[in-house]
Amino acid sequence: MTDTFEFTGEFLKEAERNIAKYPEKRSQSAVLALLFLAQEQNHANGHYVTPAAIAKISEMLDMPYIRVMEVASFFTMVNLEPVGNFHIQLCGTTPCMLRGAEDIRAAIEKKLDIHNGETTKDGQFTLTEVECLGACCNAPMVQINDDYYEDLTPEIMVDIIDRLAKGESVAPGPQNGRSCSEPEGGPQTLLTGPAPQVRS
């Protein structure tokens, strides 16, 4: 952790662009965007928002430090501590739990020998259980960095971890062949019938 933080390069340009989107007395509305940018700029050093970055954002937006911290600590996508290269955010809310999230968590913990909030010794993987990520009909699911991996089984989850550890790419989205959020097995309705009438 460093005691100072400055936006640089493209991150500074993007921060200024986000601030400029709002009227002068409403610049605090850019706080979440600036938190994301600070986190991305710090990607190589733990992908988290440092206290120095929060202080800088507070200064840029003329906003009390505690107000910036309130926003940063509310959203789970803002990391306040270093995370691994692959941040596994496991949805543990009711739909995912009913569809096997606890089995997914157990598989991750066994495979990586870590628990919620911990990072592997090599710094590659962090596990964090979070609230609803909004992919309920494709439960259970995880978010790894910026991508969603849905329709998981313990075996699929372990395979994803293995492939990421080897540097292989893994296609995000449903992992069971489902297209988007259609019913399992494919569409069940509106498969036949008259062509729709187009009104001019």
UniProtKB/TrEMBL annotation:
Pfam family, one: 2Fe-2S_thioredx
Region (Disordered) location: 168-200
InterPro entries (alphabetical): NuoE-like, NuoE_dom, NuoE_N, Thioredoxin-like_sf
Domain of life: Bacteria
Similarity annotation: Belongs to the complex I 24 kDa subunit family.
GO cellular component terms, semicolon-separated: catalytic complex; membrane protein complex; organelle envelope; organelle membrane
GO biological process: inorganic cation transmembrane transport
Gene Ontology MF terms: 2 iron, 2 sulfur cluster binding; active transmembrane transporter activity; inorganic cation transmembrane transporter activity; metal ion binding; monoatomic cation transmembrane transporter activity; NADH dehydrogenase activity
Full protein name: NADH-quinone oxidoreductase subunit NuoE
Residues reported to bind [2Fe-2S] cluster: 91, 96, 132, 136
Source organism (scientific name): Pacificispira spongiicola
Cofactor, how bound (note): Binds 1 [2Fe-2S] cluster.
Catalyses which reaction(s): a quinone + NADH + 5 H(+)(in) = a quinol + NAD(+) + 4 H(+)(out)
Alphabetical list of CDD domains matching this protein: TRX_Fd_NuoE
UniProt KW keywords: 2Fe-2S, Iron, Iron-sulfur, Metal-binding, NAD, Translocase
Cofactor needs: [2Fe-2S] cluster
